Amino acid sequence: MFEARLVQGSILKKVLDAIKELLNEASWDCADSGIQLQAMDNSHVSLVSLNLRAEGFDKYRCDRNLIMGMNLASMSTILKCAANDDIVTIKAQDNADTVTFMFESPSQEKVSDYEMKLMNLDQEHLGIPDTDYNCVIKLPSGEFARICRDLSQFGESIVIACTKEGVKFSAAGDIGTANIKLAQTSSVDKEDEAVDIEMQEPVTLTFACRYLNLFTKATALSPRVSLSMSPDVPLVVEYAIGEIGHIRYFLAPKIEDEDNA
Q: Which residues contact 123 (CB under 8 A, 6 or more apart)?
């Protein structure tokens, strides 16, 4: 038997909003430690890794490991039926081919349940190596979303350059060029508004705007985002999900002007 109950059910809606445009379907790996999801996006350019810890749920039970393959558009349709303040419970039997979503209003006066067919998905687990990154930039997630949105008007790629002075985002295209610089903030009353840069050595990498903009769909989950960069390894864009876990997006840098680009 698997059962996970979340009083703040709106978190699940936000999690789905953060992944459903990148992934059509995905396997939710449920174990006694929590729920994980890991999948390449539809065009095999980026990787999504999601972790929801068991202790972050208000009730969590997983008698044996369970892999639930779900169509994310269908799951999103069901979650749209939940009000933002509803309590959400996900239930499945050990060998079930369906999963049940139960929504309860805070007053318990309305309870609805939806059953969804599960899919058999053939998905391999990719080992994500632990990497020490040359630069880790932490900034307000709303600011990062705005930068990605604004710069995507200028070109298909965003260059992220990190130095000890700060971080520079730039794009170039038919209109012209755009540069946005953020300096490391020294004194900020509100921690959520700080720009924090940990740098071993400077890094400049180029990424596809389209994917960065899709990653910023997770902005609603967290006031902060962290960008971890090193040469020749994928960028990691990470958002915390409250007290319950995190979502990480991995995106390989663009290799410019080379034969294998």
A: 26, 27, 38, 39, 69
